[in-house]
Amino acid sequence: TFSLTPLRKAHRGPVAQDPAVVLNKLSISDSPPPSRDHSSRAEVDNENSPMLPVAMTPRSSKRKSAQLVSSRIRKQLNLLDNQQDLNSDGEDEDEFVPSKKEMQSSSEDDDGEEEAELHSDEEVVLKKGRRAAAGSRTPRSRQKTQSSTRTPRKTPNKKVKVRQPENSTSHRVLFFSPLLSEQITPSTPRTPRGATPSIPCRSLPARQPANVLEEARTRLHVSSVPESLPCREQEFQDIYSFVESKIMDGTGGCMYISGVPGTGKTATVHEVMRCLQHAADVDEIPPFHFIEINGMKMTDPHQAYVQIQQKLTGQKATADHAAALLEKRFSNPAPRKETTVLLVDELDLLWTRKQNVMYNLFDWPTRRHARLVVLTIANTMDLPERIMINRVASRLGLTRMSFQPYSFKQLQQIITSRLNKVKAFEEDALQLVSRKVAALSGDARRCLDICRRATEICEHSAAEPSATGLVGMSHVMEALNEMFSSAYTTAIKCASVQEQLFLRAVIAEFRRLGLEEATFQQVFVQHQALCRVEGLQPVSVSEGLAVCQRLGACRLLLLEPSRLGVLQRIRINVSQDDVLYSLKAD
Question: CB count, 10 Å around CB of 580?
Fold first, then answer.
């Protein structure tokens, strides 16, 4: 029987010689490979010959030593092939794998023989390998092709998952590798069956209001939905009747709703739609679709087409494609077509130069098969006459509704209904808040904010022994001073006469246009008119630009970052109520 020995020379010299380099060098040389008899004779001659220095070694001896090494490698490859053919009948493995004991025994037996045979030509082979590595080294592709005949399928450096039976003792190792490590079979983690994702429960329940003031503050928040909507019963009835008649008849129409901010326009429309949806659920009226868009939430007015199309069908499209699809939808008849109710809030922000967005929104309800009801909301009562061209205003129609500002009695009733029998305010304190806000703007949101701030002030001062626990006049006055005495109001009060007149001119121009934006030229005309009314000398254009720049530096105004001069656009950075309050107080 033959025992195979892996070729190892690393322990005999400082540098190990790769057999592939020697084989490649021999394949490049022109001389044919020697036969087996000549190679054996060369071995004997090489053993008996004294070792010469490398510099004095003739060229023939170098070639003979290389041939000797190549012949030994070929002999081992032939023996491997014969042994593999004998073992291929009874084994399933494709590769010859010597055992660990055979590798150790064969290496010990052959160490003595190899030392005598290869000691003489060791330095010659090392020198030849160094020259080959420094000069013409075999490319990486040729080395792979030459060693691919005996390369195992998988290298031991990579971790390979192998699934085999428990009694199997087969191994896969690399040929000529002196390290034979035991096979490591990692365990496969089990997949949980029937696992469902879950959210961890609350460790503690939601905290309840600790006292009366905290509960009142929660009820007075703007986002809380009240149980009823007082002081808007007539407006509610008119909007409900208009939308219900259109749904019952299967026709379309438009309604324009106007009013100053905080007068309950959007809240009333939402309450109407909630009641109509409840009536449709109990089959009192036919079913319908309700869609709401807000001009404040869009970067471009043409995005209205995209939002309407997406909320109707759930599909996204470009603005032009969505406009074409909506035009086709509202122009052609369809079986079992439901009525669509569209609420357009902040209508003035959908204004464009050609006004095509407003025109389409008001023109689609006039189509025969549209079945579209459009409810529009804006802050200016005469917006159609101010900014809309005739063909757009005519399609809007004459169905209009105006929400008047709340009076102090209505504001007091709104606060009382919100509190819902929670005794947290004194009667005089509620009347003071209602009268202050009603005299300024009639904004219900501002009234609620002041009341919430008053409850916070009262709660912080409750540690005093003289505190009664209810929100009194002193707390309300402190909240009013904080609300109307901000840094902006202080800056307005400390401004010059011309700067205050310029702010008044900005507000007057906004109200005239019905928009929240104007050019310097338009505001300057209003400023000159106010100067004449007040008996002051009108300023020049350069002085007016200087006043505008000073107000922009204080961030009371937002100026367009350009060099347009009189054509630059102006916006106000504070609430108009704060400006009017500061100017009245002055």
Answer: 16
Residue in the block written with tokens 């086709």: 328
Token duo for residue 2: 């033959």
pTM of the model: 0.55
Give the Cα separation of 520 and 527 in Å (integer).
Answer: 10
User: What pLDDT shows up at residue 552?
Assistant: 92
Among 465, 475, 533, 477, CA closest to 505 = 533
Taken in order 579, 582, 583, 585, is the CA torsion positive or negative? positive
pLDDT digits (tens, 9 = 90+) for 286-342: 999 999 999 989 989 999 999 999 999 999 999 999 999 999 999 998 888 899 999
Tell me what the mean pLDDT of segment 253-258 comes to: 94
DSSP conformation class of 526: H
Spatial CA neighbour of 510 closest among 582, 420, 453, 572? 572
Alpha-carbon distance values, 343 to 105, 294, 354 (Å): 93, 8, 22
Cα maximum dimension of the chain? 131
pLDDT at 247 exceeding the cut of 90: yes
Q: How confident is the model at residue 126 (pLDDT cuts 50, 70, 90)?
A: very low
Mean pLDDT of 423-434: 92
3-state secondary structure of 516: coil
- Give me 78's structure tokens: 């032939």
β-pair partners for 289? 340
Among 285, 274, 471, 291, CA closest to 374: 291
User: What is the secondary structure of 70-139 as a DSSP string?
Assistant: HHHHHHHHHHHHHHHHHHTTT---SS----HHHHHHHHHHHHHHHHHHHSSSHHHHHHHHHHHHHSSPPP
Q: How far apart are CA 443 and CA 577, in angstroms?
A: 9
Range 425-430, long-range pairs (CB < 8 A, 24+ positions): 425/216, 425/451, 425/454, 425/470, 425/471, 426/470, 426/471, 426/472, 426/473, 428/472, 428/473, 429/454, 429/470, 429/471, 429/472, 429/473, 429/475, 429/476
Residues 6+ apart with CB under 8 A from 386: 380, 512, 513, 514
Cα gap 413→411, rounded to integer Å: 5
Euclidean distance between CA atoms 308 and 297, whole angstroms: 13
DSSP state of 163: -
Residue 402 has pLDDT above 70, yes or no: yes
Please classify residue 135 by burial: count the beta carbons closer than 10 Å to its beta carbon, then call 0-12 exposed, 13-18 middle and 19+ buried: exposed
